[in-house]
Amino acid sequence: MTELYPLTPSGPSRRSTLRAAGGGALLLGLGLAGCRSAVSDTSSAPQGASAEPRRGGVLNVAVNADFTPALLFAQSGQSLQQRLIYNTLTRYDDRLHPTPELATSWTYAKDGRSITLRLRDDVTFHNGRKFTADDVVFAVKNLQNPVRAAQLRSTAATVTGFEKRGDHELVLKLAHPVNNLFDLFEFMIIADRESVEDAVAGKKLIGTGPFKLKKWSPGSGLSLTRNDAYWQPGRPYLDGVELRVIAQADALISSLRSGQSQLTFDAPGKSLGAVKSDSRLTISDYDTGAGAVYIGVNTTVAPLNDRTVRQALAWAVDRDRLVAQTLGGYGLASAAPWPKSSPAYSEANRTHYTHDPAKARELLKSAGHSRLEFPMLHIALPGETAIAESIQYDLGQVGVHVTLQPTDGATAQKKLISQGMPALWSLGHGFAQVQPSTLAVSAYPFNEAKNTSKYRSAAYTEVVQEAWTEPETDTAAANALHQKISGILLDEAFLIDLVVRGQLQVSAARLHGVTLNKFSYLNLDNAYLV
């Protein structure tokens, strides 16, 4: 057996804290995965204000979309509230090393076919019930349930047996080794098993996290209050959190400037001009590349079933202009999904497709087309609309004319899951910032078994499955498999990546201690207002 001891989290993540500098935009898409955790820069405190944590106060967070109960166990742009109400078993540090949360330590079997988890014995749910190993068993089985929308179901499904050793020790038995088990542990929220159906109906949200649900007002947002019985002594500092839905960009920025809101991750790049000169606000760029802008392609719609046509679209888009003009200069133009922090990253893959409209027209001509018309779905929010319009312009320059279909976020997510997308769609995806195998076995746009593009390939399935079960210790073999996956993605172009980037935080300068986990779950355990 290999004993894994709790690791000490590394220091603050590399991120830029900007004031009176360039603007940026949050990727306002679905399937948006989170940045590494980061420590807020306390140097931005107003002059004369104490940098010491203060107890009390209610934090107002401006969000551009309401909570959707049916997506509680899925990863989407609406997952911001997850870590406020719920905990997870583990949490990655900046080096993708798991650190303890509800699990205190773990032991992996040498053959990779089981893992023993030791759990905290001092944790209670918001309803007063004790947290035990049975809650972990339920959490895994809950994600295995096909009724739940959960991207990491494939990984959860590898757990085929449970052996309880008392209330706070549990052995998970695996059908076969996988190298992304800790992705599952950080993704999987621990919900009260006795009220889960009420949770997905939006009636009760009961976890072990730092805040308890006070009220959900559909269309307006969530109201949370401090959990006085939280297992972390003295935390949280805040008395409560209000997640307020403000869909219009101008109104969102106005709420920040007026002090009505103190935090958002939903400010479009074009709206930041009013923020950067305001000394009361801070713009912080989480530069881990946890999200991406992409064009999805329905490969069952002719002539998009021809990869030559799909490749033409990949050459047509000006990624650099998209970053500079539409995203406010934040992001990395990339034809591949991987951020630079990923072991799957390569510069050759990033630059595989560049802006070459002549080549795009040549490929279309070789496929017998001079003019094509397609619908393209996008989310009806300012940031997403700006991205879609930029793509629309570039495709139009090579004779591909798209009609934009603005859609609300919940409907778009349902279409993404059910493979109900039109010919093209413009959204955001995540999952490239964790173990590379997770992207192709879990993310809806990439899933080798059932993806939104309806693309199937025996070769793709074979290499993805091999990469998923490859031991992490064999770096050379893993890198070779990652390269094969990238090669298929680039050549087949059933999903066309455009920009890799992280999250952009706009906050009041008096707010400190905000962090995000790898799946963009907002962590306010140590947050405080001065």
Keywords:
alpha+beta, disordered N terminus
Distance between the termini: 48 Å
Estimated structural class: alpha+beta
Number of helices: 15
Strands, count: 23
Largest sheet: 12 strands, mixed
Helix % is 25-40%
Proportion of residues in extended strands = 15-25%
Pick out the low-confidence regions. 1-49
| Radius of gyration of CA atoms, rounded to a whole number | 22 Å
Form type: globular
Determine the mean pLDDT. 88
Describe it for me?
It is built from 15 helices and 23 strands. It is an alpha+beta fold. Strands 2, 3, 10, 11, 12, 13, 14, 15, 16, 17, 18 and 19 form a twelve-stranded mixed sheet that branches. Strand 8 and strand 9 form a beta hairpin. Helix 7 packs antiparallel against helix 10.
